[in-house]
Design brief:
The protein is mostly beta strands. The chain has two domains: about 80 residues, Sandwich (Immunoglobulin-like), CATH 2.60.40.1120; about 675 residues, Maltoporin, Chain A (Beta Barrel), CATH 2.40.170. Helices cover about 5% and strands about 55% of the residues. It is built from six helices and 52 strands. The strands form seven sheets. It has a 22-stranded antiparallel barrel. A five-stranded mixed beta sheet has the order 9-14-15-12-13. A hairpin with a 4-residue loop joins strand 25 and strand 26. It is globular, with a radius of gyration of 30 Å. This is TonB-dependent receptor. Keywords: Cell outer membrane, Membrane, Receptor, TonB box. It is found in: Cell outer membrane. Its main location: membrane.
Amino acid sequence: MNYAQSNTSKLEGVVIDSYGTVPGAEIKLEGTEIGTVTDLSGRFSIKNVPSGETTLSITFLGYQTYEKTLNLEAGVSMDLGEITLKEDYSELKEVVVKSTYRPSQARALSIQKKSAAIMNVLAADAIGKLPDRNAAEAVQRIQGVSIERDHGEGRYVSVRGAPLKWNSNLINGNRLPAAVGTSDGLGTGSDRSVPLDIFPSELIQYVQLSKAITPDMEGDAIGGSVNFITRTAPYERTLNVNLAGGYNNQAQDGSYNASVLYGDRFFNDKLGIIISGAAWERNWGTDNYEVGYNADLEDPNQQFSVSQLELRDYIGKRSTLGLNVGAEYNFNDDHKIFFRGISTSFEDDERSREFLFLFNEDAAQIRQRKAIWGTYLSGGEFGGEHQLTEKTSLSWKGATYRTKANLGSTPTPNPDEGAGLLLGIFRQQNVGFQGLSPDGYKYLEGDAPQGVAGDPFNNIQPNMANPLSPDQLFIENLLNFEQSSEEQDYIGQLDVEHEASDKLTFKFGGKFRSKTRSEASPLTIFVPGALVGVPDSPFPFLNNYETEAFPSNGGFLTELGENYNDQLVDQVTQDELLNLFRPESIDELNAIRIRQDENNPSSAASFFEGTENVFAGYAMLTYNINEKLSFIGGFRNEMTSIDYTGNKVILDEDENPSIVVAEGNRTTNAFLPMAHLKYSPEDNINIRAAYTRTFARPSFGSLNPGTTQNDAFQVISRGNPDLNPTFSDNFDLMGEYFFDNVGVLSGGVFYKRITDDIFNSTSQQNINGLLYTITEPRNLENGYLVGFEAGLSKRLDFLPGVLSGFGIDVNYTYTDSEVDVPVFNVNGAGTIEKSILKQPLPNQSQHLYNASLFYEKYGILARIAANYKGKNVVGFSEFGPEHNRWYDENLTIDFSAAYAFNNKVRVFLELNNLTNEPLRYFHGNVNRPEQVEYYSLRGQLGISYQLF
């Protein structure tokens, strides 16, 4: 922009320190209210600066204040170039302080301090110095955050105890497409949750967790908005290499990790590029036992009897690959274009060996499965930033991102079949369970009838008169479960900002997103001919196949004392399992083939396609009432139009099923007003108050119009394309005190008033004189979530000598919730009655805390960190609250340490799960386990080398 005809000037520059550019630094012109904050690349630009002499002041947490007197000429733009800040240490001795965490924390806290939204920030360097393996595990250290794990590794993020479906996961401000099917192990199904273990932490520049959003952010964020900002071009040439190797004690096998980052600037710094890549490969293992109960029995005294015990031994190898590229070109001070691209993949080559003891059937099964679970993300964005006039700027962006998820196997045993999860099931009849009660059921201690000794919950024994034997275990069936889902987004965005005055700024814009979604879950079942009467069919006993010793890799459930080693048998080898699915093996068994796909009534409803178009617009203003008080207000409106095509199974008058196409469409509108007040009585104090209205769209699986009706069991399962979005009115009050030596004391309260939450409803309905059980998603009526949070990050540099390197990071969050769940029952007169049952929100833990003690001095950084998540209900049972599925409290302790030899070379050590904390789910009562998993200790040792 040409200032030659203006009476004002433009002032710009870039703030750096010895570690790179400095975002979030506060720029002020002394004696005026004119100022700004450096952006994420450390740059600042102040327009319409009065000419004449002025003093520039730059402040940043943990750094000395920078001051410089300037003489500005009217109509002249002044570029100050690099401005270097110096760290402000509370004590200076003849010791070279090689800080490794402090600058990164200073950057994150400064962005948080100056943010308009209620936000927590995690910087890239801090992620690399926490004992965490991926983005989800790093984010769990933020106040109010908990995670869901899969085989010991973090996968999904929950904010303030809200359900996973209420959280928004973004990449560079755009909602990430989600394509994780029903077999991810965590019950997310076809919802909008994004598995964050797909992100190697090396690709991330910053993580912004917004707990109260502003109108220019995506509005579907009831719990919170987690924005992953990928790396951008550095200010100067950078080349960094990391190499690490590790070990997983449960798998008794190794792992490796390598990453490289290169960035540079060309053509007089006009062109900046960055390329970063990461590769992770790690072996893992899990020992698991699961318990089923007879909750469906009519006699309440028998409903807590044990129906089955399942033992599982998992061995797997996980591979994560990531590549991030970025480029920007500055035509001049007023015009810039940029590009960001990312490609990541997560593959889990998993093998499970399982034993099931079916107490109600006097039978047992052994199962072996093999699969590769894959999730793949790719995409990018191209955009520009332009200063149109002295007071008006414009930015634009076009983007596309795609996520795919599928099941595969290597090698593919049958070219004619899709590659999926391969499951071989062997069965033994008449095992003769002993120790059952007189009524014929298995019980645990505390639930057993009088005079019956139940089993301890951590030592449930099959006690078989006829133990498992290879010459009695026969192939019951072979299953090939395929699954694929894909979601693609196309995005266009435009934002305009206008400075009406030094105090008042308007911003408005719009975004369009077109999403396509498809999902398919075919299943092929092979049943040996001998089981269904096919002549001349061999009976396939286990002793006819190649087996291998069990247990292996250090034993099975050693945490429970190896209670089962004498009762388990060897299983088929992995190669033998693959051979069973080859065409020649299927022919030898004379197996019949049952294909469940979109043409089969039993599975057709699980196949669907959909298109979702979102039209969003917003308007907001920022008004600086005075130096201490500012106001942000405005609204966002998001209109969502969805079209779905699925399958519906219907019966003719002779009860023959047929499949018809089911179509659904739905248009909803979300009007979202928002208001923020920020009061700063002192430079290092913020008091924030916010009202925001946010929402959550229904999941894709819930909107699927498909319907399946089973008349043999009188069961109907269907989707609901008429679901309303869930809305929340959010009230937040937060206080922050920032320490000069880089730290923060914060606390606040929050309240969410919920309408139209979505749950899976089970009801009964009379159809032609028969009573059917109907399962479908429905909107709840009312609910709330309320709580408070507090945190302290403090360096204890007031301690003498060597002790001054200690510091603490602690935070705690309490939440409580309640939703009105409608229950439908048939009374004695055959009339359906509705009642209301008050329940807590699923996945909502009342208590969350993080606590860590760290030491940072003399080039040493050591940290021991604890993460606690309290118990929470994860599934409501149709048989009553005493049968609900609960997640048990969980406390994990991790350790990391690093030593910086100089500014270029650093060695590091990471250890996870020091106490071998198990994952536990229980059935209404903590002494009734449903699922227990052990992962043991894992860790890695590595080196980081900053070449330049």
